[in-house]
Write a structure and sequence with these properties.
Strand order of the largest sheet: 1-2
Order of helices and strands: EEHH
Strand content: under 5%
Number of domains: 2
Number of strands: 2
Radius of gyration: 17 Å
């Protein structure tokens, strides 16, 4: 499945606003930012940092998804559920489930 998210690299300014490579601000569905409520400034910045890190975390998960094996490309397996790539992740695999969620799959 092709990515539906804004491609990277992303940048974040001092206010926690995140921008894509085209300079446009990245908006996140279902997230309300506090307006004028400075008591939540630290939480808002922490949320922004987590969103900002999401793209890097996705790439890291994809890099390790089938990273284990015996040196033969055909026998690669997941380091979490130990399932071979050809059979896919086990239903309870945290890595497989996180990647499916990031791709918008069920």
């Amino acid at each position: 499945m092709d990515a539906k998210h804004t491609p990277g690299p992303w940048t974040m300014n001092d206010f926690g606003e995140i921008y894509g490579p085209d300079g446009r601000q990245i908006l996140v569905s279902g997230v309300a930012l506090p307006c004028g409520d400075h008591s939540k400034a630290g939480e808002t910045m922490a949320n922004g940092q987590l969103f900002f890190a999401a793209l890097a975390m996705l790439e890291a998960l994809k890099a390790v998804e089938w990273s284990r094996g015996d040196g033969m490309t055909i026998n690669r397996y997941c380091p979490i559920c130990r399932q071979e790539k050809r059979s896919g992740h086990s239903p309870k695999c945290q890595l497989g489930n996180a990647l499916r969620a990031a791709r918008g799959e069920k």
